[in-house]
Amino acid sequence: MTENLKWQITSNSLEASQLLVDETLFHVANGYIGIRGNFEEGYPNQYNTIRGTYINGVYDISEVKHGEKLQGFIDNKQKIINITDVQGIELYIAGERFSLFDGEILEFKRTLDMREGISKRHIIWKSPKGHIVEINIQRMASFIKPELFVIDYAVKSINYAGEIVFVSTQKGEVSNYFDPTDPRVAGEYEKHLTVEKLDSVDGIDIITSITNKSNIRVSSAVKHVVSAEHELERIQDDQSLTSKIKLNIKDGETQRLIKYCIFTDSIRFSDCHQAAVDKMKEVLEISIDNLYELQASYLSSFWAKADVVINGDDGLQQGIHFNLFELLQSVGKDKYSNIAAKGLSGEGYEGHYFWDTEIYMLPFFLLTDKALAENLLNYRHEKLDAARENARILGHKKGALYPWRTISGSECSAYFPSGTAQYHINADIAYMFVQYYFVTGDLDFVENKAAEVLFETARLWMDTGHYVGDSFRIDAVTGPDEYTCVVNNNYYTNCMAKYNLKWAAKFYELLKDNNRLDSLADRLEVTEEEVREWQEASEKMYLPYDEKLDINPQDDSFLSKAVWDFENTPKDHYPLLLHYHPLYIYRYQVCKQADTVLAHFLLEDEQKLSTIKNSYEYYEKITTHDSSLSTCIFSIVASKLGDIKKAYDYFMQTTRLDLDNVHHNTKDGIHTANMGGTYMGMVYGFAGLRIKEQGIFFNPIIPEQWESYEFKICYQERTIKVHISKNQCNFTLLEGKELKINVYGKEYLLNNDLMINF
């Protein structure tokens, strides 16, 4: 693999099923907008496509139908919507319509360049009549101008002189993808967007639409810039705007159409129609070459902070670059948005935000970009009132319960056993607020945001749990493993709730000691007695333990169930959730994903090493990894236990999950949590990083397949470079004051370069 290919994803497939996957892999996004990698000219009618454009945080509302609706079941849910389609460009050469499925393809390759931030398509096409043209198409969702999407379409004649025609469309008639056989996507057809206004201002074509139930407006604006004199015909109907552009081309000459597209919405702009015009005029003042340079410069700065380098494993290196780039493309960069489970690449899980953000994706941003990490946590603080309301709906008199899946802040999970019952999301969010404090030391953030979230989530645990004798227990919840639902004393939930309660009390004392408490305590009516109850419940939290096996049972009843018959389960019956009734699955010892093993990673100090090892080995045998959130965690814990081979094998599955379509559903969008898991597998797994109240810890290992690996992290206003080779670890303090770090259980002072032999 060449150096360039480590930074590029390429494909030359025209096979129908791979085209659907490539629509995801070659999408472009910037955290605000995302456009799937559809062919501008489309496919033949018999080919399936998921043609989509999305704005992060823009949603409509769908009715949720229950056969038997009980108290507290949701009536409706939010879902990300497919908005105006601006991708369409048809090309005609001497009246023949260009298509990769007609004529003769002499060359074809598509490329996603992760240093330039551009998706490219290169074609040399011979028409049925023998005319040959070279076509180069570039797409960009700008990180500098987040409302901007560009299609840069260049045609070079090889043996033709005459007229060429571009037919460029902007279509307001769109709908969302659905598949009634797959619970991971929408199950029925719905139209969510109605065109409200079509307009043209100074050569800018604008379509403004409104969502049918949430009443959010979205505007798209299109401006065409053509390289030569041309004839323009503008065609309009009730739903679309079409520009027919005719011009001449000479043999050997290149002609170019640049299609500038702007998207705005009424969540962020008081008048999104006017904002689209204004943003377009801003963009048109910058040359296209300068826009490309700004994009590359932005990414150069990003990679300087965030790159993870592996020497000796090119396939993994490509996968790592892809995953980190996709996290950047996916992450919301304002207070109105977060990271959806599929980013902005598709409609899987209907664009909802989950616990994935905090446990799997936020660590990457926390260690590389403090501002983006803070933004993600700010979103949770912004939604705290909605979480309080959600708690009341579920019968809780105090505290806040974050919804399992959401966009605007209310619960969107219609199947409560593996949705709303996952109360652990509260502790997951609290955990990352604490991690943020460890990494930044930002006491202002604790005072203004973090403490309130921890106090309200702690109150929820007190209202959910109860004492049995001298132990605090939590009943009728679901842990991360969605193949085991509504159980008593899920180990992960109890362990994380214990930490949540502990740090709610610690934040109270921290603010009190720094004379920052009174205003918040008065507003929330927090008392010393209540804080003492949090601390006591934390100390007395029941954590299931089996002395004979020296493991932590996943819950009170887990070990009493029969083990799933893996030997006689056909390979084509995975994932189990698509082939077996939930109740059938719930009766067995079978795990969809890491659960207790995840707790052993996040809160490793709760158990001795032998218990962690025995639990890992026990659950490994009964975990299907049907969830993309699983293999990265098993890799991290295998690294901790010194099993480098298994750590590497799990990591390989994690890193190339989307590139190799391991779960066979990449067509529905990327797996952003797994992508965050790739980063964690490197820094928390192989490098053994842990960030705790006591400081920063490393315990590096290196797979035999690698020569070395390295990365940088930001920690308490310092930048540290970590380089691990076969026999040596090197730590370099690039910025900031000296600090103490712990490596292999021994404390060192890092003030410049520190070299430690294995």
TrEMBL record:
Keywords: Coiled coil, Glycosyltransferase, Hydrolase, Transferase. It comes from the Bacteria. Pfam families: Glyco_hydro_65C, Glyco_hydro_65m, Glyco_hydro_65N. Belongs to the glycosyl hydrolase 65 family. Residues 12-264 form the Glycoside hydrolase family 65 N-terminal domain. Residues 322-679 form the Glycoside hydrolase family 65 central catalytic domain. This is Glycosyl hydrolase family 65 protein. Residues 689-750 form the Glycoside hydrolase family 65 C-terminal domain. One of its GO terms (molecular function) is hydrolase activity. Residues 510-537 form a coiled coil. The keyword Hydrolase applies.
